[in-house]
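At this stage, I wrote out one protein, both as residues and as discrete backbone shape codes, and that material follows here.
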Amino acid sequence: MSTYVLGTTAVLGTGAVARVATRPAAAAGRPAARPDLRLVTAPTPVARPAVRADRRSARLRLTRRGRVVVRLAVVLLGLLVTAVVVLGSGRVARAGETATQVPVAYHVVQPGESLWQIAGRVAPGVDRRDTVARIVELNALESGSLEAGRRIAVPVAG
């Protein structure tokens, strides 16, 4: 029984592969065997479009942290758009519009006087809470406290 040793050798420039099969060394009295050569052609490579190679190199791969950041950015953008729509849809006073004038009188605050007392004197038949709110709005007060000697605008009843 004889054994063969197989080896593979590429034939440059042809895309072919030569497989070499050699026989064991000749026994005494027999000449050495010549390797048997057989040319095996490689399968023809399928041409791939260049676009696919570009697509692979241009593919964006995000890590878990990157996906979280992108989602957070989308949510914040949505909230910003919602805030702009909600806050921007309200009626805004424009410079060209005429404002309605409110008849007012001026009152100088005396020591120990409060908005509640002033509202009771200015509009005796009206709910004092509404009158205090109008006084605060007319004078752009941040709180209900007043300083003695301050001149404030109060709505005129009628």
